[in-house]
Write a structure and sequence with these properties.
It catalyses: 2-formamido-N(1)-(5-O-phospho-beta-D-ribosyl)acetamidine + ATP = 5-amino-1-(5-phospho-beta-D-ribosyl)imidazole + ADP + phosphate + H(+). Keywords: ATP-binding, Cytoplasm, Ligase, Nucleotide-binding, Purine biosynthesis. Pathway: Purine metabolism; IMP biosynthesis via de novo pathway; 5-amino-1-(5-phospho-D-ribosyl)imidazole from N(2)-formyl-N(1)-(5-phospho-D-ribosyl)glycinamide: step 2/2. It contains ten helices and 13 strands. It is α+β, with helices and mostly antiparallel strands. The chain has two domains: 163 residues, 60s Ribosomal Protein L30, Chain: A (2-Layer Sandwich); 192 residues, PurM-like C-terminal domain (Phosphoribosyl-aminoimidazole Synthetase, Chain A, domain 2, Alpha-Beta Complex). Helix 1 packs parallel to helix 4. It is globular, with a radius of gyration of 22 Å. The protein starts with 11 loop residues before the first helix and ends in a 5-residue tail after the last strand.
């Protein structure tokens, strides 16, 4: 007998096939804290370990990947979007010093194509394994008529925990602290509406081979978001008392994301000459006749994360981060707020948070 639901464009059997394709990858993220398996109504975590904390604080974050998914759909490549999703979620949680424990995901699509959904979820699961986070549940929803058959969107949420005495925040920041920059892998998952406009105005297709890149344009733009959490969890274990706060450079750009994690009493001059933006930023800016400085509030420009540390430990922490696989360098030093902090050039408020005064100075390394 034909399932009446199928006549409306919803294929529940395809959903079951997708689960079978992704089950092994999801199960591989499960550790001793996970109760139950894949397919339950709720993901469950044994929280008994929290009794070992003096004062456990739970941290949570939720996010998506934005219009970067349009590029994945354009070139039919879906195995990297999952890492983008994980990075955008868990790397917000580590900002407060918390260790992410588990994650869930949500995928909405116009037509459920099992192999495509499995590619996305395998990417999510693979990234979760890299940062030791359990993928304990998710939902795939078919929305015919709302989304085109090949269209989809993804979102996710995660929960982490931190000992209250070890929470990172603006209150720990001191004048003289050094701000370390951590290299981005590329565009990560922000500013893609502008990226897509530049490509369209240039008359290019994402499948095009352009002389500026060694792979197709779409593959270059889909370079997955770097995962910082795994490295930073180790650094927090080794240097927790020497770290003041952190910032994930995402939507809103460099100055805004740094300002919101600093107290109002301090300022920071970010030294542009301390790093060279990735080639993808320079190429896109050139295509659109932008100066890189014009894009500092839209893209990360190669600065994906920042860590504020005590001066005496800065060199050691920077070397350790680099040793663990992420290039780190000195961005600037925390100073007392200058009297002209309200003048143009400084950013001191973002996402409704009044914070430190931050500006970028000098010219980027070439």
């Amino acid at each position: 007998m034909t399932n009446p639901y199928a006549s409306s464009g919803v294929d529940t059997e395809a959903g079951d096939r997708a689960v079978e394709l992704m089950k092994a990858a999801v199960s591989a993220t499960h550790n001793s804290l996970v109760l139950g398996g894949v397919g339950g109504f709720a993901g469950m975590i044994d929280a008994k370990f929290l009794k070992d904390y003096d004062h456990p604080i739970l941290a949570t974050s939720t996010d998506g990947v934005g219009t970067k998914v349009a590029i994945a759909q354009a070139i039919d490549k879906h195995d990297t979007i999952g890492q983008d999703l994980v990075g955008m979620v868990v790397d917000d949680i580590v900002v407060v010093g918390a260790r992410s424990l588990f994650m869930t995901d949500y995928i909405a699509t116009g037509k459920l194509e099992p192999s495509r959904i499995a590619d996305i979820v395998r990417g999510i699961a693979g990234a979760c394994r890299q940062v030791d986070v359990a993928l304990v549940g998710g939902e795939t929803a078919e929305h015919p008529g709302l989304l085109a058959p090949e269209e989809y969107d993804v979102a996710g949420a995660a929960v982490g925990v931190v000992e209250k005495s070890k929470m990172l925040s603006a209150s720990r920041v001191q004048v003289g602290d050094v701000v370390l920059g951590l290299r981005a892998s590329g565009l990560h998952s922000n500013g893609f509406s502008l990226v897509r406009k530049i490509v369209a105005d240039r008359g290019l297709k994402y499948t095009d081979q352009v002389p500026e890149f060694s792979r197709s344009l779409g593959e270059e733009l889909l370079e997955p978001t770097r995962l910082y959490t795994g490295v930073l969890n180790k650094v927090l274990e080794e240097f927790d008392s020497q770290i003041s706060t952190m910032s994930h450079i995402t939507g809103g750009g460099i100055a805004a994301n740094l300002s919101r994690v600093l107290p109002e009493t301090v300022s920071l001059d970010v030294e542009r000459p301390s790093w060279r933006p990735n080639d993808v930023f320079s190429v896109l800016a050139q295509w659109a006749n932008y100066d890189l400085k014009d894009l500092e509030s839209t893209w990360n420009l190669g600065l994906g994360f920042a860590v504020v540390v005590r001066k005496d430990a800065a060199q050691q922490i920077s070397a350790r981060i680099t040793e663990l696989g992420i290039e780190a360098w000195d961005l600037g030093v925390i100073e007392s707020t200058p009297c002209d902090a309200e003048l143009p050039g400084y950013v001191s408020e973002a996402k409704g948070v009044r914070g430190g005064a931050v500006r970028l100075v000098g010219n980027y390394a070439s």
